[in-house]
Amino acid sequence: MAESVGPKPTVAVVGSGPSGCYVASFLGKKWPGSEITIFESMPTPYGLVRYGIAADHQGTKNVTRQFDRLFTKDGVRFAGNVCVGTDIDFSDLAGCFDIVVLATGLPEDRPLGIPTQEGTRVIGAGTLLRALNCFPTRTVPSDPDGRYIPLGQQLAVVGMGNVALDVVRLMSKDPHEFEGSDIDDELLEQLRPRRPQSIDVISRSGLSLAKFDYAMLRELLSLPNIDVTVLGLGDNATGPAAELLRTHIDTVDDSSTTEPERTHVRLHFQLTPESITTSNGRTLLRASTPNAAAPVTDLVVDTVITAIGFTQGAEQDLSSPTGEWSGDNVYRVGWLSRGPHGAIPENRKDARELAERIAEDVTNGRLEIGRAGFAAVEPLLRNVVTFADWQRIEAFEQREALPGRCRRKVTDRTHMLSIATSSSDPEHVPDSNAVTLVPQTADAIREHQRTVRESDK
Q1: Residues 174 and 228 occupy one common structural domain
Q2: Does the residue 306 lie in any domain?
Q3: Which domain holds residue 154?
C-alpha cells in the first residue's frame, strides 16, 4: 500500500482482534505517524486470537507477535478497558475522529432455530471455547456452589466447520496433549473430568459443503485416543477429505467395539436436527435425513454443543453495533461486515481492501479531515489500559505459567486492572517499546510461519 501525502486523518478502530489490528496496520502504512487509536472493551488486546482460537493452536495465536509491533509504532495507541456504547457513546466517538472502523466481530453463538425444550443441556461452541480460553465472563452452566457442571460422557456437536472440530479435538485430548498451550486446566477438569465415551458430530450437508479445512480434519483423525466412524458420506463424495474419511466408513455402527478408554467419534453427514427435548434426565436430539430416506435418528446424549456460526450481540447489549452506529466516516470490517466466515488470512485481505477504500475516500475529498481524535475523548474515559499496561498483564501471565503451559491467563477483570496499573516488581515489567515473545515449540513456530505465508498470498 503506497504512502499517502497530505493531511493525516485521526482514526478510531473499535475492536482489537485480527481485523481491527490489520486495518490499523494498513492505514498506518498509508499515513505513517498518523494518530490511530484501537479501542477494546477488554483490558487485554487481540480478541478472537486470545479468546476464540483454540487454546492448543498456539502457532495460529502467534500472529499477535505481528500486532505487538504495531503498537510500538508512532501514533498507534491501544485504549483497552474502554467499551464503546457504555463508557463512551458511539456518537461522541464518531464526532471526534475523522475515520471510525468497526471491527467488533460477531460475539454470540448462532442458535439452532429448532424446537428446544426448556431445561435441556445445550451450550454454544463459542461460549465453550472462550471459557477454555479463560475469558473473564463465563456463561457455561455451573452449580449453586460455583463449580462448573460436567458436560457428560455422551456429547453431540451440531455443525462440522473448524469450530466444531476444535470442540471435538479439545474434548478428546488427554491433559498431557495440551503441552505448550494456555488452556484453563481447572475449568477443563470440571467440565470434562475424563474424556467422553462418544461424540456425535452432525452436518446438515454432505461432505462437499462441509466447512472444515482439510488440515483440521487430518489433525482430528490423527489423535491417538479416538475411534472414528463416518456415516452418510455418500458414494459420490470425492476429493482428499473423502478419501481420508472413506477408510472410516462403517456400515454397522457398533460403539461397543470401542475400547472403554477411547472416545468414539461419529461423523454424520446429511443429518438435519429437528428438535431437542429431555428424556429421563438426559438430552434427546432428534434428526432426520433428506427426503426421509432413512428413519428418524434419535441421539440420547448428555450435552448438545452448537457450532453453526456466530451472530451479533443481543439488542440490549449497548456495546453491540446497531444500525445507528453509522455515518459518512464509519466503516465495518471482518465478520461484522461480511458474516461469520473466513479465518485470519481472509480477515487480513478484507482489512487491506477496506484500507484502500478509506484511502480513496480521503484522496477524493469524500471525507473531511481535521477532527481532534483521542485528545477530544480522553476526558470522557476512565481507567484506560495502555499497551504498556497490557504488557504488565502478559508478563505476569507468563511468569505464573504452570509446567507445560505457555501462560496462565488472568480471568478476573479486577485483577487484570490491578496488575496493569501496578508499578511494583519493575524487574519483570517489560519495556513499553519491547516486544515480549512467548516461548514456542518448533511445531508452533512452523504453524505460525505457514499462516503468515498464506495471509500474504
Answers
A1: yes
A2: yes
A3: 109-311
Give the C-alpha separation, 408 to 228, whole Å: 33
Q: Which residues contact 39 (CB under 8 A, 6 or more apart)?
A: 12, 13, 14, 15, 16, 79, 82, 84, 93
Q: 123 and 187 in one domain?
A: yes
Domain ends where: 311, 334, 349?
311
Q: No. of H helices and E strands in the chain?
A: 16, 16
Name residues whose C-beta falls within 8 Å of residue 118's C-beta, 6 or more positions apart in sequence. none
Q: What is the CATH number of the domain that holds 221?
A: 3.50.50.60
If asked whether residues 34 and 95 sit together in one domain, one would say yes
Per-residue HEC secondary structure of 341-357 comes to CCCHHHHHHHHHHHHHH
List the chain pLDDT tens, one digit each, 457 residues: 666 656 789 999 999 999 999 999 999 999 999 999 999 999 999 999 999 999 999 999 999 999 999 999 989 999 999 999 999 999 999 999 999 999 999 989 999 999 999 989 999 999 999 999 999 987 888 888 889 999 999 999 999 999 999 999 999 999 999 999 999 999 999 999 999 999 999 999 999 999 999 999 999 999 999 999 999 998 888 999 999 999 888 645 555 555 668 999 999 999 999 999 998 889 999 999 876 556 788 999 999 999 999 998 776 677 788 888 999 999 999 999 998 888 899 999 999 999 999 999 999 999 989 999 999 999 999 999 999 999 999 999 999 999 999 999 999 999 999 999 986 554 444 433 333 333 333 344 344 444 434 444 4
Whole-number Å distance between alpha carbons of 13 and 36: 7
Where would I find the H helices in 196-304? 214-221, 240-246
Burial of 39 (0-12, 13-18, 19+ CB in 10 A): buried
- Of 311, 342, 369, the position where a domain reaches its end is 311
Q: Strands 11-14, 122-124: parallel, antiparallel or unpaired by DSSP?
A: unpaired
Interatomic CA distance for residues 1 and 347, integer angstroms:
17
Domain count, the chain: 2
Residues in the chain: 457
In a domain, 25, yes or no: yes
Query: What would the grid cell of residue 154 be?
Result: 455422551
